[in-house]
Predict the 3D structure of the following.
Amino acid sequence: MEKGAPTRQFIAGVVVNLASVALGTCLGWTSPMGPVYSSNDTSVNPLDVIPDTGEKSWIGSLVAMGALIAPFIAGPCAEKFGRKLTLLGSSIFFVVSWVLLLTTSTVGQLLAARLIQGFGVGFVMTVQTMYIGEIASNEYRGALGSLMQLCIVSGILYVYVIGPYVSWAGLQWACLALPVIFAGTFFFMPETPTYYLTKSRRDDAIASLQWLRGKTAEGVQKELEETSASVDEAMKNKAGVMDLFKTKGTTKALIICAGLISFQQLSGINVILFYSQTIFAKTGSTMSPAISTILVGIVQVLASGATPLIVDRLGRKPILLVSAGGMCLAHATMGLYFYMDYIKSDSVDSISWLPIFSLIFFVTVYCIGFGPLPWAVLGEMFPANVKSVASSIVASTCWVWGFLVLQFFSTMDEAVGSHWSFWIFGIMCAIAFVFTLTQLMETKGMSLNEIQEALNR
C-alpha cells in the first residue's frame, strides 16, 4: 500500500484556519477597544457620541446576531459553489467591516460593522468544519479539527496584545491585513474531494486527493471508492431540514452536536473574551487589566495548542468531561471571590489573586476541550446529504445562545450580582458534564462510515 504523507493536508488545514485567526480578532476586539469608544478623550475616541449602556451591549452582541443568521446562507452556498469559494467569500465580510471601523465616527456605523463581522464569523464557522472534515484522513481528523480553536484564540491574543498600545486606526489596519492574507493563500488550496464527487467531477476529486495525500492516482483509489460510495448513498437521499429527523443516526447526531455547542456558549466563554479587561478592572487587582487580559490570551493559545497533540490519543469524550468539570470549578471560585467582595469581607484582599488564577484555569480547560472539540465532532457526525443543513443549524444554535448571553449578561450582572452570574455559568458547565457523559459516543479512530453505522445502531 502506498504510504503517502500528511504534510499537505496539514498545510491546507493551517491555511484555511487563517480565517479562524481573522474570526478571533472580531471576538476579542471589544476587550481593548471598549475602553476607547467609552472614553471622553476625543484624541483617542473616534466617535462623536459615547455609546450608552444599551448600545454597548449591542456592540458586543451584534457579532453573535450576524453569526446566527449567516449559516442559513453559508450552508447552501457551500453546496452550490463549493466549500473553498464560500470560505473565500467570507473574507469580503471581514474586509468591509474593518474598512467601516477605520472610517467610522458614529455609533450606527460601528454597529453596522459589527453585524457584518458576524456574517463573516457565521460563514467561517459553518463551512470550515465541513472543509476540514472532508480533507482530513481518519487518523488526523481530530487534530485538524481542533486547529480551529487554536487559531481563533491566536486571533484574540493578536488584538489583546496590539489593541492597548496602538491607536484606533492602527488596530483596524492590523486586523484588516488578516483576511487579505487568508484569501491570498487559501486561493491556492484544493477544493474538497467530497464536494467534487457531489458534482460528479471524479477527475477533480482524484486530483484533490492526490495533492492532499501525497500519493499517485492509484494510491488514492481505495479512499476515493469509499468516499464515492458514501457520497452516492447520501445523494440518493438528498435531504432537507426535516430529513435530519428521519433516521436515528442523524437525529442523535443533531442532539449531540447542538447540545455540545449550546453548552460551549452557556459556559460564559464569550463574556470572558469580550469583556475580560472590564472583569479584571472590577477585581481591583494590582496587575493592569490589559496585562491580565494578555496573560489570559497567551494561556488560551498554549492550551489550544495542546489539543491537536492529544485528541487522537485520548479521544474526544474524556477530554470534554475534564473540560466541563474544570470550567465548573473555575466558575465556582470566581463566584466565591465576587460574593466575598459583595458582602465586603475583610479577607477579600488576601485572595486578590483568585480571579486571575480562576480565569486562567477556566480558559485552559475550555481551550483544551469545549472550545475546539464540539466543532471537530460536528465535522464528522453527519452524512454528506445533510451535512450542510446540519452545520447551518448547529452554527446558528451556537450564536443564538451567544447573542442571548452577551445581550443580557450586563442586565443579569446588575440584577443578581457578579457572583451569581458566575455561579449560573458554573451550573451550566455541570449540566454539560452530565450531557457529555450520557449522550456522546467516542469517535476516536473511526472512519466517517463507521461513525454513521454506530449512530444508527
The radius of gyration is 22 Å. The chain has a mean pLDDT of 88. The longest helix spans residues 384-416. The chain is about 80% helix and 0% strand.
